[in-house]
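Input record, target 12 of the design panel.
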């Protein structure tokens, strides 16, 4: 449901099973990410969005979360601009080698893929 109580329950379970340092909580719902951040200042958070805008970059910096974006909907300029703001960038879904290389050259070090070996 995304309620504060349910989100706290998730954090409690991650702590109980000593998984907090390995977990990444992701969501398309920015408010949910912000709520988790208010409950825990250290857990890794990724806000999923289609396009990187100044708003996403500003919110990520203010709330200490990464921006995970649709790789196909963002050009090199937008990606590099966000990277210069020291925002952790994550791209999804990258299944082609040329797209992987493009993103890596733009400074993206975290990707989501359906293919361990990207297609040539």
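The sequence produced for target 12 reads:
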């Amino acid at each position: 449901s995304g309620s504060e109580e349910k989100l706290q329950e998730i954090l409690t379970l991650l702590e109980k099973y000593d998984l907090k340092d390995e977990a990444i909580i992701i969501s398309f719902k920015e408010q949910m990410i912000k709520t988790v951040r208010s409950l825990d200042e250290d857990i890794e958070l990724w806000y999923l969005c289609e396009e990187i805008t100044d708003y996403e970059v500003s919110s990520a910096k203010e709330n200490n979360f990464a921006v995970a974006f649709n790789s196909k909907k963002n050009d090199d300029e937008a990606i590099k601009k966000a990277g210069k703001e020291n925002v952790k960038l994550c791209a999804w879904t990258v299944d082609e080698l040329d797209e992987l290389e493009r993103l890596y050259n733009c400074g993206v070090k975290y990707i989501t893929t359906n293919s361990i070996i990207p297609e040539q």
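DSSP finds five helices and five strands in the chain.
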